[in-house]
Fold Helix-turn-helix transcriptional regulator.
Amino acid sequence: MRKLHEKTQIEFADQIGVSQGTLSEIEQNKYNPSVEVILRIHDKYETDIEWLLTGRARADLDHKKEFSITGYEFDILQQLRKLSQLDREEVEEIIMLKLKWKAK
């Protein structure tokens, strides 16, 4: 999340109300964030709480069918949302070409 928003540990830690050392330990899986920290991240970055807690995201596909995505996939989706509609369509075309070439 921090890298996606191009924040240093100090900047991100300040935004979510923890020390840089605590953030470092959270990122290294040495420490679990408190509920308060999770809620601050959710509020600041409009991130799905379920994803923050479990790594799984909820979708309203097929009437609330649950699916999970990796952190990497989530980061890609976040980056995609920053693009214009035209750029998104170009990315989709590139993906479709890659899949077509792979199928051959």
Notes: The domain at 1-52 is CATH 1.10.260.40 (434 Repressor (Amino-terminal Domain)). Strands lie at 56-61, 65-68. DSSP finds six helices and two strands in the chain. The radius of gyration is 17 Å.
